[in-house]
Write a structure and sequence with these properties.
The chain has 185 residues and is mainly alpha-helical. It has helices spanning 3-18, 37-55, 74-92, 107-128, 137-148, 153-157, 173-180, and strands at residues 97-100, 103-106. Strands 1-2 form a two-stranded antiparallel ribbon. Strand 1 (97-100) and strand 2 (103-106) form a beta hairpin.
Length: 185
Amino acid sequence: MNPIDALERSWNDGATIIARLTAEDLNRPTVCAGWDVKQLLNHTMGECQMMTMVNHGETAGNDRGDLVGDGDGLGETWVRLGEENVASWRASGLDGERTYFYGTFPAGASAVINLGEVLVHSWDLARGIGAHLELDPEQAALVHGLYAAIPLEGMRKGGILAAEVPVPVEVPVAERMLGLLGRQP
């Protein structure tokens, strides 16, 4: 599966969870330690907004501000940012490198990092509000393939990722991806 197509699908799948949110849900805890739903959404949308800016040749830091607010219009914001994010990848393509405040990566890997942000955090969001989000095996395989091929200990020590949750090798790739990225499938 092309990572840009996978990213687009992931934004659309996440929109189904966003549509279920209420203002009261914004303060609910998530599986991401120390983050409530609002913080998780601000992180996810802000990270992807940064990737969009970089795809347009702009320099972007890690502070995107409050994109959630009181939750009014959140669905429209999610869709708009998703469309802009996907369009930026379609326009810039998967060649070259992308430089973010945390490092420089090949464009193809950056697209999969972007996919992982939306895919995994949509799952985190669903868990936070007691909903179910079925993860697509092809999307999960892209994300799992990237993160299984790189050392993650620095991110774990830095608090970016939780400790790996051991899962049997024979479980579906979505569960292996979640475990690798510190989630309990």
